[in-house]
Amino acid sequence: MFHRRELLQIGCSSFFGLGLSQILQQRSVAATAKESRVKSVVLVFLTGGGSHIDMFDPKPESPEIKGEFGPIATALPGINFSDKMPGLAERAGKLAIVRSMAHGDNRHLSGTHNMLTGAVQPFTGNSNQDKSLKRSDWPSIGSSVSYLRPRADKLPSQVTLPNPLIEGVLVWPGQHAGFLGPKYDPFVLKDDPNSEKYKVNGLSLIDGLDVGRLKHRQQLLQTIEGTPTGVSTSPAGQKYAGEQELAMSMLTSSKLKQALDINLEPAETRDRYGRHQYGQTLLLARRLVELEMPVIQCNMGRVQSWDTHVNHFPRLKTMLPALDTGVSALLDDLSERGLLDQTLVICVGEFGRTPRISPLAGQSVPGRHHWAMGYTAVFAGGGVRGGQVIGKSDAIGAYPMTTPYHPNDIGATIFTSLGIDPHIMVPDRENRPRYLNEGKVMDVLYTGAT
């Protein structure tokens, strides 16, 4: 919960490390950058870490690695997927499959922060603080876009579906605007679009600020300050008044509510995506693409859904067909509507799973465990050259045999696709100038050279 002082500071960080004139110059550069390659990025996020071997990089010749699923041919000669991914196997001509993703962090929270922000999480040394969402976090990719190139219609630049990543009382880091302030937070839908009771009534900011709470605080400030607007006439107060008005405008946007009203879709279209949370979430993503939402984060399941330490294969037998159906429908739908070229679709988790199948300590049922040293990411649309496999893993899918790519590189690629220089300078949490992103753009996605 924000205190009055924090509310007055929303979006008002001084950024003394760079100086106001430099910050304004940086934002001006971002606003007038070269033409963006895409209008939207859809991040299909396999929260918990999807098993690359059981999806896009099967190892049928290694019996101890193979597992229960067999390989099937794709539309690309000599390239196999898991037999639980037949839809995407047929559409492999639209895909760039990067089999050489790698980094060194096997932890869910910091790995997720890296994937969602495009930056390695700065550690405080306090393990409890590093596990929770906080205002010192590096901003999410969409929040950075909102800060550097705000939309003219005052909507945020990121929507997260269908729920934030919350485990008990712990909100995972990297999901909001961090030190940029709540003004640039993404919208988060907190309702299952596959539920019969689904209504567009769950719009809020990541910290839980919604219309009702905002109005209550406005009334409280009116009482405290004794002014009609609830803020003083000081420069800081006037700035807050403008930002409060902006927040209210965003939270009450009819355009966003309409885009999230899945009940406006024909039953046939909803069936096509699959009547499950994955499919209906991805259908909402397509509706947000039509709204030209820059960043659409689709959390495939709740926290750790893909964290299959136990019951690995029984769980994947349900999850993989749902993912395959939903993503296949999304690619077809975008293509048929002429939207795929302006939309970059990425399917990836914070890491992959171990090649070897074994029980977790204290468990009897085997599974696959955290593995960041080698995994797969899949890209489509947005000018990506489809029908290619980039990189190669070793015989058991453990390590890249070719050039490795890092989550920072995905971040750099997203920023560049949206027309923002990933190496623009922004102030970090200590007000020191730092590159927005330290990765390298994955030009190989567009050139086809591995």
TrEMBL record:
Please, which domain of life does this record's source organism belong to? Bacteria
Q: What is this protein called?
A: DUF1501 domain-containing protein
